[in-house]
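ingest -> validate -> predict -> emit
validate: passed (alphabet ok, no gaps, 59 aa)
predict: started
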Amino acid sequence: MDYVSALLPPVVMAAFFIGLVVTIVKSQGGTNKAKEDAVVDAALARAETTRQADGTATS
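emit:
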């Protein structure tokens, strides 16, 4: 019975990791890509506007 308690945590962590990877892969591209790109573009534009307003030089 000790082997079951020794193997259970790695098996559970592996299952969650596989689920995470599958979720990440499924969320790439498609209809979500345009929304994600728009959010990133808006965040970058906001950061650039803030940087220019502060007078910080851009590289």
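The mean pLDDT is 86.
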